[in-house]
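Example 4.3 (complexes with small molecules)
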Amino acid sequence: MQSYDVMIIGSGAAGLSVALALPKYFNIALISKSEINEGATFYAQGGISAVMDPADTNDAHIADTLAAGSGLCHRDVVEHIVSSGRDRIEWLIEQGVPFSTRTSKSGNKEFHLTQEGGHSHRRVVHAADATGAAVEDTLVSRIKDYDNVSLMESHAAIDLITTTCQHTKQKRCVGAYVLNAASGEVLAINSRVVVLATGGIGKVYLYTSNPSVATGDGIAMAWRAGCRVANMEFVQFHPTCLYHHRAKTILLTEALRGEGAELLLPNGKRFMTAFDARAELAPRDIVARAIDHEMKRLGLNCVYLDISKKSKSFLLEHFPNAYQTCAEYGIDIASEPIPVVPAAHYLCGGIVTDIKGQTNLPHLYAVGEAACTGLHGANRMASNSLLECLVVASTAVESITDLLKSATNEHVEIAPWDASQVVEGNEDVIISHSWDEIRRVMWDYVGIVRTNKRLERAQLRMDILKGEINEFYSSFRVSKNLIELRNLVLIAELIIQSAKIRQESRGLHYTLDYPKTDDINFLSDTIL
Ligand code: FAD
Ligand code: SIN
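Answer. The structure with flavin-adenine dinucleotide bound is encoded below.
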């Protein structure tokens, strides 16, 4: 049995930031389901929001975040995270992240800041249009020098292990079962503290900007271990993903709209001005819903994003990634509009934590997209996610360090994984079929626009699928695909349950049966 002081599950911005900031006298396991840099962080484009411009203020950033969150943001959390932004950007610079700069009129070098939906100022610090890759690669290269951190790539956590104290009767987290995907062996790993940094859930939808690791594993594990989960109905759909028969999960950054890109119908007519005074820079929920509305109204497969009024040299400097990617699909963004559709992008809800990342299960923390701190409320503002990962990672580190200093919990004996009742699986078709069905049902019935009937239909199908999948899980040897499938069906169920509870429309949750916001009955988080 392996034993650690801290086991961090997930190696994106959240997990790496925790690992890098913890004191080096801790013995740490950093577990990653795929290659270490594979996760949403690597694909982040626009950047990280932080108040860096002297003309901008924390108050303005706080007000914008609260407005986007439609009444559900926790003000104290928003204030803490926003006011820690500059400090975290400075930490990233110390680590070596090469953010884009420009020379000011007075000849000084300063950050180049972009603007995205909902932000009243330019405040998005970025590395061209591949900020996530710059952050992830830098943090990964730093962590490789840390002798106290054992990297375990291609290891998928299956479930948390808990124990109940005989005296206090209190339950706490003491480790996790983890599948070594290469050998097929399941390890029982003991750890005094476990941090879930497993990212989002995009793969529960047919169309998503998320990478394949985003199957909600951390949220599902936490739920099964008895943690509270909140606001699962608030799934953010990014308005502009590339529409092309060969393209999967290609996002076109909102910063394009920040630099003047317009959304057009096939006849070249701009339409966002009819939906919101902020037009293309309205918050994402409004833009995605407007696109969905126009596509359904006119029977379109896509709408168009047009940045062609900018020069090719401007585009190559600011959006080299978007330029190159579109060129690979035969689209010259300097001279023609880009076909786009909305796709599932970000989960505002997740495992309930405080600002220190503490869950309601002692010795279990959650940080990053898997967690629900109260920052985003009913709708996340662009580029506030990486900010949250960085700030909460740093407060979690303080809390974990204090806990491990004072805690008397030493390593406890944990039971090895029991595979005595299962046999080798021989029907992978069941896994792939169920996976496809979940994602299709969620897209069709639990997407941008919902109704009672659609949610009921989705629930009925998930009930059947869940029964089949659980039977499969208890009969066959675990594999990465089976672990993910079992988690996906649970995540789908949690989203549907939360959506059914919220009988109003607010932020990212829009239902034709209750199209109005109802502050009297629903001005609070949906806690499951
Ligand atoms: P991730 O970076 O997703 O990392 C999750 C990690 O957990 C991975 O290492 C994964 O392998 C691991 N993992 C998952 N399950 C298991 C398991 N069972 N066992 C072991 N390991 C596991 N936000 C912004 O603020 N600004 C942006 O510009 C921006 N652009 C985006 C662009 C795209 C295309 C996408 C998809 C998202 C974007 N976001 C952006 C959102 C943001 O990138 C994510 O919310 C953020 O990176 C999440 O970081 P994380 O560390 O929580 O998770
Ligand atoms: C984008 O670049 O459009 C994504 C930004 C985000 O999701 O915060």
